Amino acid sequence: MKKINLYSISLGISAVLLILIIAMIVSGNIQQAGIPFLLFFAFLALGFSGYQSLNGLVFTTMIFAGVSVALYYPDLFTYIGDFKLTALIIPLIQIIMFGMGTSMSIKDFASVFKTPKGVVIGVAAQLLIMPIVGFGLAKMSEFPPEIAAGIVLIGCSPSGVASNVMAYLAKANLALSITITSIATLLAPFLTPLLMKLLAGEFIEINVLDMMWSITKMIILPIGAGLIFNKLFNTKWLDKAMPIVSMLAIGIIITIITAAGRDSLLDIGGILMLLVLIHNLFGYSLGYGFAKLFKMPEQDARTIAIEVGMQNGGLASGIANSLGKIATMGLAPAVFGPLMNITGSILASYWHKRPPKTELENVVIE
Fold first, then answer.
1. Percent of the chain scored above 90 by pLDDT?
2. CA angle 142-145-147, nearest 5°?
3. Which CATH number belongs to the domain containing residue 285 in this structure?
């Protein structure tokens, strides 16, 4: 009972802080709202953590807290002394990918041969839908070339571990989700640069070989190291720790990018957020429709919808950073990350309450 009261009080405090923030915005004092914004998201996250139906939003809420601090106090997240914090982005991506490698084994890819149809359709949907939609939105946006290229970049990136979590919550096919994520991630060093050259070449110059090597260092090498580590050592303790480490790393990456691109984000943030949201929602709906077109079962269709709609924003940010364009090209991935977690949580919650028809049919038969 005490815990429930604590969480309820936290939500009550966040409601009061929201009223205060709205009052400050109306009165023209939004420049002084940094601390209230931070406290609002912190108390909101604490309140959400006490309710099973809202627990999935805790991580996203904490990211918004970090983004708020980065927008109001960008100097805290740009340099520490002479050290530029954007230099942390690629090592953090490598840590996340190492964690993915430690949780994988060669056996995980056996499902590719057992049920190749779902994997092929899922990966094909990801490679077709999101890059093309991203290109269309970038052309419509009339943003500066480097920012527009960032929209294409998020579309050309593979799905990430967040999609696996949402697939589990949505009662989708978790094994298929993990396999699609793994295959798409391993293909990324080769396909992402080629897609970027094809679709983003008119916005910025793309050196395919340099990008391939950059992505290989971020993906293939750390995943390979993780696979070897998993083979040689008992990684059960690491399997428990890495999801927390990965979420923390993603939060730090998004906060650093927000601080680095603060001025551009304040200029175009609203429009960019709208375009990124459209990109994300098109991914879910077209991914689901693509799967149904090939008569995939409901559980697999849900999986493919989530895999297509949820991209690896962290990897896209790392690519932008490797090109020296984190403050421009990295903005779309930074916005996409928190938004996709919100929409993904809502979609997963909706599907969680509606078991796939096959499940219901099995219950009736039994």
1. 27
2. 85
3. 1.20.1530.20
